[in-house]
Automatic annotation (TrEMBL):
A biological process from GO: cell division
Protein name per the record: Unannotated protein
Organism from which the protein derives: freshwater metagenome
GO CC term, one of those recorded: plasma membrane
UniProt keyword Membrane, yes or no: yes
UniProt entry keywords in alphabetical sequence: Cell cycle, Cell division, Cell membrane, Membrane, Transmembrane, Transmembrane helix
Length: 227
């Protein structure tokens, strides 16, 4: 055998040996899953784990685990999910939950919680405290789909701290009005400068209270008016 050919064969043999060793390590207990941790979904860890389908003893670097975060991200209430793997054998699923900014009632009497993108993130028996209702949003779609009321969602998403005071949000002829849990109605008017209007209303209500007037008009955010 010629020296050059012998060198090539030796090189190929070494390469395949290295590849075989690497594959063996990847699929060996040295690099398998010893522990699965869910971060960012308190009280819903079991739901995340059921969807992720990561099992103790699975390969850490290849196989089904590589798409586990995509499966978790498909849950209606999940905004994003990321898989973080440690060579110590720990697989961490880091979850960011969608936050409801409003709710709408279903024909059955339950409540659809809606996030700032208009997605129904949960169907629950009763609304949580501090989340306003949007009036006349149209049919509430199934879990995980968007409602057909983008303007109402836009107003709800702009409220910030003011949202905790609001019972209902209504829009008539593209004029938004907020009805407080206790106190006057707040007139936003048009659908522009919503965050400024919310900040103006919150500051005014904090300064003068909620009694002695029937409405607070913040259509001009820099000059709120009561009446």
């Amino acid at each position: 055998m010629k020296p050059k050919l012998r060198t090539i064969l030796i090189g190929v043999t070494i390469l395949f040996s290295i590849l075989g060793l690497a594959v063996g390590i990847i699929y060996s207990p040295i690099l398998d899953v010893d522990k699965v941790v869910v971060i960012g979904a308190p009280g819903r860890e079991s739901e995340v784990l059921d969807v992720a389908k990561i099992k103790i003893g699975d390969p850490l670097l290849v196989g089904s685990i590589t798409s586990s975060d995509n499966r978790v991200a498909g849950l209606p209430w999940v905004e994003s999910a990321r898989l973080d793997r440690k060579l110590t054998g720990t697989a961490r699923l880091i979850v960011r939950s969608r936050t409801p900014v409003a709710y709408a009632r279903t024909p059955e009497g339950s409540v659809g919680l809606i996030d700032n993108e208009g997605i129904v993130v949960a169907i629950v028996p009763t609304p949580p405290p501090g989340v306003p209702e949007i009036k006349n949003p149209g049919p509430v779609p199934v879990l995980g789909q968007k409602i057909s009321a983008p303007d109402l969602v836009k107003v709800a998403a702009s409220l910030g701290p003011l949202g905790a005071r609001v019972a209902e949000i209504a829009i008539t002829d593209r004029q938004a009005t907020l009805y407080l849990i206790a106190g006057p109605e707040v007139r936003f008017g048009g659908l522009d400068r919503l965050a400024e209007k919310a900040q103006s209303a919150e500051a005014a209500l904090g300064a003068i209270g909620t009694k002695g007037f029937s409405y607070l008009d913040v259509r001009v955010p820099s000059g709120p008016v009561t009446g």
